[in-house]
Amino acid sequence: MGNRMVGRGTNRLTDRTIRGFVSRTLAGTGTNLKAGSLEPLIRRHVTRGVRQMMKEALSFRNAFGLALVLTHFTAVEGRAQVASATTLPATVILVNFARLQGNAQGGFNTTWFEYGSSQSQVAAGTGTKIGFMNAGGFRQFDLNGLTGGTTYYFRFVGNGAAGAVLQGTVLQFKTLAALPTMTTAAASNVTQNSATMNGTFADSPTSTWFRYGTGYNQVGGHGTPDVSLKSTAVVQASAAGSLTANLTGLTAGESYFFQAAGATAGGNGYGTVKNFTMMPEVNTTPASGVSKTTATLNGSFSSKTLYTSFIYGKSATLGTLGALLGGTQVGAVNQSATSGALSYSLTGLQAGITYYFQAVSQNFGGTVYGPTLSFTTTP
Q1: How far is CA 161 from each of CA 62, 75, 82, 140, 279, rounded to the nearest angstrom?
Q2: Closest of 96, 92, 134, 84 to residue 112, by C-alpha
Q3: Is the dihedral of CA 318, 325, 301, 293 positive or negative?
Q4: Contact 45, 136 (CB under 8 A)
Q5: What is the CATH number of the domain that holds 250?
Q6: pLDDT tens digits for 268-283?
Q7: Residue ending a domain, choose from 60, 80, 100
């Protein structure tokens, strides 16, 4: 048998070197394995890294050398392979979820993952063991219930067919930051054309803002906004607090929907959708058809409203609808239009008396009173 070379350059091994390595390794181990049965396997499947190991192991001449051979050369389906357990990077990393990956080559009875939030714990083999499978090859395991914004360590481990436990490198991943907790509070300072949106935040958002619009779905009442408007985002440096945004140039009588929003590295968080209605617009215009006992009250409205009416009386202090003083409410009408003229005919008035009156408009945003005007019946 010739002295054939295996490998190249400084890593090449001759048949004689391989035979000597195997013979010396088997010597004194008590095994009944024959050198000749291992030489072809080593020669065919040896890798550069293992060739170097063989050179270094020549000096041991004991069972340790055999263990190296048996660990790195395992018969799988009649062929010898280099046994290895490789930890692969985690994927699909979310706030509370990550997918662990590993690969075992060379005949394994059992494979599993070890993980934890302590690197030293995982490296020592005392991490949480999960995903046991009675096979090697490419493996994945889905981790649920993780904590957002936390670094975890893990590795892939296998129990080889030769009895040796092979451990992959300890890798790490960090879950995405938890979504911020956003709370939408009631709007304040609602007028005919302006309002203040209010809310609170927690869980350290990096920025906050409001979404708003004239429709529930537009803002995102069912999860996905249609064409919502967005207030200016505010950078937040504290973990919790309150937020406000002033809106101007709004439409009188219109209803608006809004929600508080905030962002972390894990994504956006949203509060519930709330709404407010702008106060309506109404105007009082001069009375007409004034006689001794009759007159017609006039006014107009120019926005969405629910009800319109008039208050009149002999005192300039008419009061309000909820607390009428010298006034009487008349001419209440449900309104479906967004603008129009108002009028109401009074009868049974006293001659030569000055009367005061004003037009009134009501919606969910509140009650608005037009200017107070007067007329005097003829003597």
Answers
A1: 21, 8, 12, 21, 80
A2: 134
A3: negative
A4: no
A5: 2.60.40.10
A6: 899 999 999 999 999 9
A7: 80
